[in-house]
Every structure is written in structure tokens, then in C-alpha cells.
Write a structure and sequence with these properties.
The complex is a heterodimer.
Chain A lengths: L1 H27 L13 H34 L15 H29 L7 E8 L2 E7 L6 E5 L5 H4 L17 E4 L4 E7 L4 E5 L4 E5 L5 E5 L5 E7 L11 E7 L1 H22 L5 H15 L1 H4 L21 H10 L15 H13 L11 H9 L1
Parallel strand pairs in A: 1-5, 4-10
Antiparallel strand pairs in A: 1-2, 2-3, 5-8, 6-7, 6-9, 9-10
Chain B lengths: L11 H6 L3 H29 L10 H36 L7 H9 L1 H10 L26 H29 L12 H32 L13 H35 L6 H14 L15 H13 L1 H15 L8 H24 L1 H7 L3 H31 L1 E2 L2 H27 L14 H31 L1 E2 L39
Antiparallel strand pairs in B: 1-2
Helix pairs in contact in B: 2-3, 2-4, 2-16, 3-6, 3-8, 3-14, 4-6, 5-6, 6-7, 7-8, 7-9, 8-11, 8-12, 8-14, 9-11, 11-12, 12-14, 12-15, 14-15, 15-16
The chains are: A alpha+beta, B mainly alpha.
Chain lengths: 381, 526
Amino acid sequence: MVFKAKRLSKLALGPVLLLMSVFAMAAGGEVSDINMSPGVTEVGHKIYDLHMWILGISTVIGLLVFGVMFYSIYYHRKSRGVTPATFHESTKVEIAWTVVPFLILLAMAVPATTTLLEIYDNDDAELDVVVTGYQWKWKYEYLSEDGENVSFFSNLRTPQAEIDNTEAKGEHYLLEVDEPLVLPVDTKVRFLVTANDVIHSWWVPQLAVKRDAIPGFINEVWTNATEEGVYRGQCAELCGRNHGFMPIVVNVVSKEEYAEWLAGKQQEAAEIKELMAQTFTLDQLMERGKAVYDVNCLACHGANGEGGVGLPIAGSPVATGDIGHHLDVGINGVPGTAMQAFGGQLNDVDMAAVITYQRNAFGNNMGDTIQPIDVYNHKKG
Amino acid sequence: MGDHHHGPAKGLSRWLFTTNHKDIGTMYLWFSFCMFILGGTFAMIIRAELFQPGMQLVEPEFFNQMTTLHGLVMVFGAIMPSFVGLANWMIPLMIGAPDMALPRMNNWSFWILPPTFLLLASTLFMEGGAPQAGWTFYAPLSTTYAGPSVTYFIFCIHVLGLSSIMGSINIIATVMNMRAPGMTYMKMPLFVWTWLITAFLLVAVMPVLAGAVTMMLMDVHFGTSFFSAAGGGDPVLFQHVFWFFGHPEVYIIILPAFGVVSQIIPAFSRKPLFGYDSMVYATASIAFLSFIVWAHHMYTVGMPVSGELFFMYATMLIAVPTGVKVFNWVSTMWRGALTFETPMLFSIGFLVLFTIGGFTGLMLSIAPSDFQYHDSYFVVAHFHYVMVAGAVFSMTAAVYYWLPKWCGRMYNETMGKTHFWISFIGFNLTFFPQHFVGLAGMPRRIPDYALQFADFNMMSSIGAFIYGASQILWLYNIIATIVAGEKIDKPKVWDGAEGLEWTVPTPAPYHTFETPPKIDPAHAHS
């Protein structure tokens, strides 16, 4: 028995090593197709090591147990003329296979605990980013002690035609956004994760971050990427219709590049402020409005305002009716329907542009315009 | 003996008004089989849509309805009622009782099920569609953001809970009061033990689920804010309440499956179950632990680290009694005289695949790694190894094992073995690759996916079609057996089988054990 068990354990070792090396090879390069990726953070590497450690122990135990079982299946079959033994209990054995697994669990619990404590150490972050989940997009807001907060929405960029199979799918199908989150390398970044409507979950495997975004509560989580690059993730908590269509893209760049990017965004924000005081012509608003429409409205209302999940805009009573009411729908949404309140998502210039666009495109020739100041006044009540 | 020894009533009224445990067991089994086919159809639609990247067949909201209904129908309609059916048929036969303790309630706990599922399925045709927040229906997606069907859904859950509670009370009352003289607790077959413990779990947690859906109802219709932060509530409260039900629910499903294989493996090993006492204690330990591990489903909600550690350690502990069970089964086979009829094949399939599901469960229990696994396909793979290869394989084994006793005819062994091998291959082809895509970063419950997941998803879909098709073979085999299987009349269908059910004639007569059997005090448990 003892001898056999030893031989079996040797036999088992071969396949284990083989399997482990396959996984290790798969994990050596970039993102693996079959295994967890260690990613680009120290914590990610620790999680990966922990994952491989538990997987390894499980594989060894599994092969031992299955080894004994298959030995039995082969050598103890009735067709070989064996007489069944009659033993049916042994307190010693039962105690042994209660105590030994317990000890093995301790060997798992120790590294698991240290890693967990490290993950939960949210102190001393150099940068805070508020991540807000919306149905079905992400909003990022950089909190800065000096200067303007920078904030923007990040929408799926994959065209509907690729999803509908009428166009060839691009390399980053469903994992591409119009405006990625930009983070500096080698910086401890703290995310303050929350949601605006239902629960979402912000997951970027390469950054080893997954945290639920819960409306009304703020969760803290952090990362520190040690390599520059583009890292992609997705919402991980079912959040309704387009749960599968709200990806996350994070650009990790050098600190200099990041500073430059941030300055650019702050500049942009200042420009928007300036624009808000201006009055635009119909053509200017139409041009800006089309761009805003394509990103924010098209998915539900169609490329030609023909409708879909949302009502048609072409010839709609709202877009061809009272302009104040139209603006109100844009800002406050329609409660109880999929039409969200965009007042908090679009700046006043974009809101003015898109409402104007809807009133003057798709055969709606209302000829009237909304100016940023109108949006501002409407919001103020 | 004499005239009171009547048989069943004729026609439809036999089934409508029956209080006979065998009739009710049969109805439960057929009903759960129908639900298995219905839930399986939903799964086929899911896998067909996921066959390739891009949206081909259905809209995302319909896809969400399919995943939701697939889960609900399989858990509440297929697996749970199937084991209740098995309990109805077998527990009185195993403990030497003439019937269940509360036969009229037994009738009712079955008959409220079919209308409930009809109502649930009918929501598919409602405006706004069926529930689409997943079988875990997290608030507020399932409350303030849900369509009108949520109210029907809440009503259905209430009635299902009622049915389960009545069924469980019946089982507890039967096991405690109706055992034949000499059938002490530690002589009961393990299937009876696992069901007794399961019944206590059900009575404990079904009211909690009822509480959760009642709070949802209040939030939806009566202006409360249990699950809305805007009104002072907390969406995470829903998850705590749900999983306080939901985790024991997992063991409610798997414990009777443990019981079944603990009957079958000894029978075909021709050797008594190894470590009977430790099996009973392990089952009880698992049941106890199941109440204090619920938040391991919620590692990512942002619990304090002390909470994470508590739930992680408690969850890891479950590996110990589960390990004991696996070791005992393997030791039962060790130095037996094994044969591999269909029930044994499915039990060995259970043993191997459930153990794999146990290992991935252990991996998932490790909170830091779970941050990467959580809500990915790795989880989907894990729980299908436990639910399908665990519960469904065990149930399949049970049907093949006891079908000859039920109908007095033998099933076609070749067809049974073919069913096993196709199921085994189809199952693994479906779910093994899901470990890979999950680890590589594919979230669950998405109707469309990035291109790097395409190959494994196609493989998964092909496997699912194979597994699904093999169940038609099973259905055919069952019907062919009932209609035209080879007749058998010896009480002991399997030469290695032990237990009171093998002492009654085959097929089991309408009434059995009207006088309690004699239990040999020297004989160990069966």
C-alpha cells in the first residue's frame, strides 16, 4: 500500500509539472488565452502566484485521488475475478484525512491573507480618480488639489455595424472606447468607485482591479502600474441590456506624458467654459451636434433617427414640438424608460448642439436653435 | 390484507387527488424532467447566440431573459423538484414507512408547482419581457429598473418557497416519526440522512428568500427604500439577504446528490460504504458551514477586510468535510469488485467532475484571487461542474439505478452507457474551456464578446449542443423502458444493492410496508 502510494505520487508528478509548465508558458507573454494574466502591477503578480499555488496544490491532490480511483477501477473490477473486501471504517484514516487537508489549507491561507491585506492598503495614493458606472458607460473624474477637476465619459467605440455583423470586426472589437482613462506609470492611483443607476463592476484584469460600483456608496481600490501600455477590461456585474457593451480602456503613460495630457484636458475644460458664454450659428451647432449625437444617442435612436430601443427622432412630436419640452427631455430624461437624464453627462455646449441637431436633422426642419445659455438657464430652473 | 388493499384511482383523478408517495414522486420526477428540457432549451439559445462574436439571433435584452430564466428554471424547476421527487419515492421505501407523514400536504406541495412555472414562463410574452436581472436578481436592477414582470416573478418565488417548505416539513416529519422499528438514525441509508439535513436547510432559508423578494415588492410598489441608497437603504443589503439564502441553497442542491452516490457506489463496488459515520458528520458540518460563508459571493462589494478574512477562512474550511466525502467514496471503491453499469458510470463521472468543481471552488474561496475570478466565466465553469456534473449527473444515476424498481422493467444498458459517454464528453467540451476564457478575462452574462474568446466559445457551444442532444436519448430510453423494457420480477435488481427498497417486490407495489419490516439489529446501515 505504502509502496504503491509512493509510486503513484511519482507517476502523478509528471503530468502536474507538464500542466504547470503549459500554464507558465502561456502566462509568460502578454495576455494569455487560457490563464489568468499576472498583469502589470506588483499586486497582480502576487495574485497570479497565489492562483498558481492553489491550482498546483489542487492538481496534485486531484491526481492522487483520481490515481487511486483509476487504479481501483482497473485492478478491482469484478471481471478480473476479485472478491470484494469487507472493511468499511477506520477512525485513524478519517482523522488523518481531516487533519492533513486542514494543514494544507493553512499553507494556502497565509499567502492569501498577506496579499489581501496589501490589496486593502488604500493609503498614500498619489492620484485620485472617481469612477462612476452609468447604464452603459463609465465616467472618470480626476480629483486635483490645484486647478480644475477633469472629467469625461468613456463610451464604447465599436460601430453598431460590427456588432450586427455587417462590417468586419476590428482587432479590439468591443474593447475600444472613444476616450480612455489615462494614468501615469509607477504611481499609486486610488479609484473611488460608485454608480449612478444600478450596480456595475469596474474590472481591468491587467491592473488586478475589480470593484463593484454601487449607487449611493463609494468603494476604494487602488493600482500601481509598472509598465506603460494599453489595458482593456469590461463591466463585470450584470447591469441591464448593454452590460456587454461598456468596456474600459486604460492608457498607462509616462509621468511627463500624463502631465501634458492633463494640462490639455484642463485647457479643454476652460475652453468649454468660454464656449458656454458664446452664441452659435445653426451650422456650428449642427456640426457639433452630429458628433455628440453619434456617441450618445445613436445606439438607441439609430443613425438616421429611425429609432430602435428608443423612439424615432425623425418626425417625433418631441423633436418637432415645443423646444423647451425637447430640452427638458434631454436634460432630465423620461423617468421609467430607457431615456436617461443627460443633463449631468453632457456639458451645456454639447447639450445645446445635440438638441439643435435633433430638431434640424433627419428631415426635422424646425430651423430653431438652442444656445448654451438656454441650457444653463433651464438647469437653473 | 384484503379489500382495503386497493390500487390507484382511474384516470386523471388518480394524479390530481393522489396522496400516494409513489404517484407524487413520479409526478415530481416528470415535472422536473420537463423543466430540465425547458431550461435546457434556454441554454441552447444562449449557446447559439454565443457561438460566434457579434449579435446573430437575439437581442441583448432577450439574451438576459434567457440567462435569467435558465438559472431560475434549472435551480427551482429542475434540480430541486427532481430530488424532492426522489425523496418522495425512496425515503418511505428506505426507512420502511407506508407513506409520507403528511400525504395531503404532499399533494399540494407538488400541485402548486406547475401553475407557478407556467406563470413564470408566461412573463416571456409580457410587454417588457421576462425578468432579466439574472437568477440572482440583484437590486436595484431587479427593482426600480425592472419591467412589470418582476411582480409576477416575486409571486412565483413566494409560491415556490411555500412548496419547498411544505415538502421539507413533510420529509422531516416522515424521517423522524415513520422509521420502522429498529431503524435507528445511524442505520438510515445515507440518502435519507442527506435529505433530512437538506430539509432543515430548506426550512431555515426559504423564508429568508421570501423576505428578500417581499422587500423587493415593497420597493417596487409601496415606496420603500430597502435597496435604494437615495431613501436610506442599501443595494448590498439585498445581496447579503439573497446569499444568506443562496449559499445554503447550493448545498440543498448538492447534499441529496451526495446521498445518491453514497447509495450507488457501494452497490456497484459490492462493498459497504466506507466511513458511514464520518459521512453523516461531514454532511452535518457542511450544512452548518453553509450558513456562515454567504459573503464569499460578494468579495468585490467592498466589505471591510476583517469581513473578507472571516468569510475566506470559513469558506476554505468547507474543503475539509467535502474532502472527507470524496476520500470515503474512493475508499469504498478500493478493493471492491467493481462493475460499471450506467448508474455507476454516472456516479464515477460525478465523483471526478464534482471534485474538479470542488477544487475550483477552493480557488474561488481565496479572496485576493477571487478579485480576478469574480463574475467571470471561471465562475460559470465552476458552478456548472457542481450543478450539472454534480447534481444532474447524480440525479441521472439515480434514475437509472431505481427505474427498474419503479416500473419493473430494465432499461437498455447499451443506450444508457452511450448516454453517459456522450453526456460526459459534451459536458466537458462545454464547460472546461469556460475556465480558460474566464481566466483570460471574459465576464459572465454578456451576449457578445471580444475576438480572443471566439474559439473556446465555439467549442463550448458545440459541447452544449452535444450534451443537450444526449438528453433526448435519455428521455427515449426512459420511455422505451416503461413501455417495452425487459420485465424483471426479482426484488433485488442489482446484486450488490443493499437496503429496504430492494426487499419489496419489483415493480414496487402501490402500497408498501403497511406492516413495518423487521430490521436486523446486527446489520449495519444499508
